[in-house]
Amino acid sequence: MTEALLKTGKHTVTAITSAESQSTLPQGVEVKKVDYDKPETVAEALRGQEALVITISGRAPIQEIEEKLVRAAGEAGVPWILLNEWSPDFANEGIVTDVFLFGMKMATRKLIEAVGRSSYIAVVTGFWYEYSLAIPNNYGFDFANRTVKYYDEGESKVSTSTWPQVGRAGASLLSLPIKPEGSDKEACLENLRNKVAYISSFTVNQKDILASVIRLTGTKEKDWMIRKKPAQKLFATAAKQIKEGKKEAFANYLYSLIFFPDG
Fold first, then answer.
1. Residue of 134, 144, 147, 250 with fewest CB within 10 Å of its CB?
2. What is the pLDDT of residue 210?
3. C-alpha to C-alpha distance for 16 and 203, rounded to whole angstroms
4. Residues 6+ apart with CB under 8 A from 175
5. Residue 92's pLDDT band (cuts 50, 70, 90)
6. Which residues in 6-130 belong to E strands, given as ranges?
7. Which of 61, 54, 59 is nearest to 16 (CA)?
8. What is the DSSP letter of 211?
9. Three-class SS of residue 132?
């Protein structure tokens, strides 16, 4: 995201991080350290900014940090917020109902509207392709053992995005004019105020992915062990395991849902 924003040459990029953060940021980024327990430091860091792009690690207390950022952005008068979503469609009520984690995202949207000083844009990307392909319990590919877990028959198509595509999307959105210019009346931030923007790199199913993997690795389908698992049964089992405190079931819980035959 940061590299894509810098590459446009249109933006001055400021990174807001906690005082103890050891993150290394690209050259050209101004860094402001804040204490999230002191809201005034966050508001001061945001003062004068035209947009806030929220990217928070899944290991962090996301909802707590988001609330502090949203309130600070309101106090600082930041007009636009790109939410910490970058994933499947949180506007889909069925997904929000089934996945408790996604409910937090809806709470953040409502908070922004309640504060009333900023507007949000939610960017729906589907799951990240590189990340999802690298972990066996996500898109089902275990490269070390050459096994594939198909959800059902491996034919359910999902929209997915690469990391560079997500970065380009964020940078492109923030490079739009605020109001319509010229003959194009659609491409502007005003038309996306408090709405969802959908992007993806491609729409594929697991059979498509396996065909690509076979081509790139020089293997053959017979070199791979393919197992088929009912997506709805995996989801139900994972939901039960999560209630029992088994955090390792969370990947099956998330990914089996998007591979349901009905989408």
1. 144
2. 98
3. 34
4. 8, 10, 11
5. low
6. 14-18, 30-34, 51-53, 80-82, 119-124, 127-128
7. 54
8. H
9. helix
Token output for 70: 């949203």
Whether residue 123 contacts residue 197, with contact meaning beta carbons closer than 8 Å, is answered with: yes
Task: Please state, in angstroms and rounded to a whole number, the distance separating the CA atoms of residues 255 and 231.
Answer: 9
Residues 8, 197, 113: CA angle, nearest 5 degrees: 105
Write down the residue that tokens 């940061």 correspond to.
2
Give the DSSP letter of residue 198: E
Beta-strand ranges (E) seen in the chain are: 14-18, 30-34, 51-53, 80-82, 119-124, 127-128, 141-142, 147-151, 158-161, 195-198, 202-204, 225-229
Residue 118: partners with Cβ closer than 8 Å, 6 or more residues away: 52, 70, 73, 74, 78, 79, 80, 81, 112
Residue 132 half-sphere exposure toward CB, CA atoms < 13 A: 26
Neighbours of 190 (CB within 10 A): 11
Burial of 214: CB neighbours in 10 Å, binned 0-12, 13-18, 19+: middle
